[in-house]
Amino acid sequence: MPGKVLIIDDIATNRIVLKVKLAAACYQVAQASTAREGIHAARALEPDLILCSAQLPDMAPDAFLRALRTHACTASIPIVAITSHRDATRRLALLEGGADDVLVKPWEEHLLLARLRSLLRQNESALEGHLREDVTRALGMAEGRDAFDHPSRIALIAPTKEEALRWKDRLLDHMTGRIMTLSTKAVLSDMAPEAIPDAYVLFGDSAALRRRPETGPDRGPDNALHLLADLRARHETRNSAIIVVLSGENAQDRAADALDRGANDAIGQAVKPREIAVRLRRQIARKRRLDKLRADVASGLKAAVIDPLTGLYNRRYALPRLAAITSGAYSSETSPLPSARFLQNSQQTGKVPRNAPSKNKNRRDYAVMILDIDHFKLINDGFGHAAGDAVLERIGNVLREFAGPDDLAARIGGEEFLLALPDTTPQAARQKARQLCETIRETVFIAPGVKQPLQVTVSIGLALASDPHPRPHMAEPDWRGAQAMLERADQALYSAKSHGRNQVIVCTERSAA
Amino acid sequence: MPGKVLIIDDIATNRIVLKVKLAAACYQVAQASTAREGIHAARALEPDLILCSAQLPDMAPDAFLRALRTHACTASIPIVAITSHRDATRRLALLEGGADDVLVKPWEEHLLLARLRSLLRQNESALEGHLREDVTRALGMAEGRDAFDHPSRIALIAPTKEEALRWKDRLLDHMTGRIMTLSTKAVLSDMAPEAIPDAYVLFGDSAALRRRPETGPDRGPDNALHLLADLRARHETRNSAIIVVLSGENAQDRAADALDRGANDAIGQAVKPREIAVRLRRQIARKRRLDKLRADVASGLKAAVIDPLTGLYNRRYALPRLAAITSGAYSSETSPLPSARFLQNSQQTGKVPRNAPSKNKNRRDYAVMILDIDHFKLINDGFGHAAGDAVLERIGNVLREFAGPDDLAARIGGEEFLLALPDTTPQAARQKARQLCETIRETVFIAPGVKQPLQVTVSIGLALASDPHPRPHMAEPDWRGAQAMLERADQALYSAKSHGRNQVIVCTERSAA
């Protein structure tokens, strides 16, 4: 449970002082007294964090940092360098070399511990990401990385407009990207998703140290820490990179506070634009990695429920969905819920004819149909698998066109499809089934390597049901109901097959027709 | 971008005051003046948060809360009730009825806004969860819910041991679960994973308000806010439910601070044990929902890369993995990386004969073999698919037994398997391939519905390669190298088939043998 910290310092006293402080804060501590020993220990122990002197006798700082940063085992371990020089150029060199932060001796204990916590917390999420990356790369989504290579958008927020503009001007000497200056009000106002900054630099107002009223008739929260809390509470910016720059009274203490409140980076001392640029680049790169990862996980999950050939939902997804439909939880009233909105895009391409909603609001009629391609084996055997696949794909497209936004279209077997209508009328469902059967009969199927167009028909079993007490409330999935619907549709399908195929047979609530 | 807040209050002045405050803090505000109107607006607008008077003229508070809590559209919207009664029983009734917090008029503005931020932030993650739940339920993992139904573990941390014990005693009157009292030191020390509490209640020390040295020779951080930051920075507790209870000087202000620093709940006033119990139950339920969801997402991702029949990796996973192996990124030196540890369990069942590591440390030899079951179609056609599946499953088990912890075993086609050895010798790889071929020949295959045991053989194509400059550094996946290895193994396999099957053919770096 305790974080593992590796201390690398050639001076025994320094190591001991740090060790005592860290052990008291319940960290596990390992030590090394030279750069080489430290690199070796880092690879062997894989600590959660490295705390090192910037002046090690056996290696120059840049070579030392490079050795850690380029080795797979140590590349992503956060590094805090401790130096006795107040010199900004030296600090910058360490940051550019790969240190995550540089503390100047005598370091402020509160800030040191807050920085450690912050780095551990952030590395924690990176690690969680690392775990997933393996799988998501396996899911084949890794190629889209350059989709994130748009120029970065950076927002500067300072106590005065002039100050913000001055920083903008100075930052532009050291980095590219769209840098904008925003008022507090503008930061928290509505923004087009594509305009939302990747990173925020919040310059603290040294005159506004202690809490002031957060609001008034004409202004929003007015200092960096409040703004930080607001940004973290909002959907669009909760994963943004936020750097807080503080100066004046208690700046180091407030920087420590900012870190504990979720800033990705906080600076509590005089700082040059170039250093802000270095820190910004690092935070933006980190944010994009995590954005990419989140997108990959979403696609990975999506890939697990989509049939790759037709793009329809697969059986694994369809069955629980059907259980939700039979339970009534998926009535049109609840469909605006986020859960129902998810993954809609994959279904909603092409025109979407909506269902006629049930007229009688006191009950809900719903329907499930199973489609099976007639003599599919003949297509596969006669024209090859590629032809068979082309037919499946085309039928998938027809089905998608027939499915309304609340309907569920899925491929549930090799040549078997499902279309569920959660809110319809018996008439509308029958008509839709007949139209579907006709449309496929009239569709011209062109298959690769096959000269003449193929003639394809389907048999459809349609099960109708009625829910006399539809509940808009949340309901448990109704597995038995779903199973029963499927069985009835299956019976009807069997009946359609044995009556000569290329037709619809309907099974109403009580009796199979 | 701004959070949408619905204000429900029958007194116009109250609504206006709240609206002004919230608009100044850049929230979007909607209003309703009766309970019924409010419920209707909540369903229609789906606000991010509801701020309501606890005394609405047209409906009793419990009926009003129930109406919101039981409807799918509004069930998970955070609700803050505002009352003018300081009465603890009334507050408790509101919390038990479903309010997330109760503020007493005149409410402290800072606390109100911090509470809003906290609820928005937490609902945000619940929402993200909601989005995924749909998919993960579809992945069929929803049934395991009761795995999380162990009694909850709750840790109480108070300034003195006596105080902690007193709270424990009083809490046990109102809830079940394992309640333990912990010192700060014990909280941050190593703990067995199964002993880690679900929830922490941190009782603030009113005497330790302003910052004290965080550490000393014999103690850790000593007040609630520091402990909160530490818990959030640690792997095992970053998702724990944390409730901070503060009293004394500036308690409300500090409660607001605790919320902004990531507490799930914070109380800045005198509080009864029963209220803590209500809040604890809610936070623990929330934590378990999210734990379940995280587990589901992990299983969902895993399901996407595992072949359900054999439990081996599927083709989708195997190819990028092979590209990592040929690039050298998957040498045994880097395998202790988290990325390589992930999903190991699925491979490591049964005994795991380790590869003989390459003797010559200056180069790395690796090997890829493709196995194809001989005359598999005859098994399927002659004995049915169930028999074919049983054979595939059994061969999957054999392969798993042959795969060392760094090796990759996968099913890459209907009857085609892959075994990649990232670090081996040509001798060891040849021997392993031959043993594999022999083992399968000698295995007794029992298939369902088939009386006599089946005789099954495989043909194996083995490709050997050598990496003269192995880099332990991180490398880009080597897609071309992987493709080339597969092609060579495929050629060798073809050769094995055409030479009479049931044998191994080796393709060395330059020439096919």
UniProtKB/TrEMBL annotation, chains A, B:
Positions of the Response regulatory domain: 4-120
PROSITE patterns tied to this protein: GGDEF, RESPONSE_REGULATORY
GO molecular function: diguanylate cyclase activity
SMART domains reported in the protein's UniProt record: GGDEF, REC
Any Gene Ontology biological process: phosphorelay signal transduction system
E.C. number: 2.7.7.65
Protein's UniProt keywords contain Nucleotidyltransferase: yes
Keyword ATP-binding on entry: no
GO CC, alphabetical: plasma membrane
Catalytic activity: 2 GTP = 3',3'-c-di-GMP + 2 diphosphate
Domain GGDEF: 364-509
PANTHER family: DIGUANYLATE CYCLASE DGCM-RELATED, REGULATORY COMPONENTS OF SENSORY TRANSDUCTION SYSTEM
Official protein name in the record: diguanylate cyclase
Native species: Rhodalgimonas zhirmunskyi
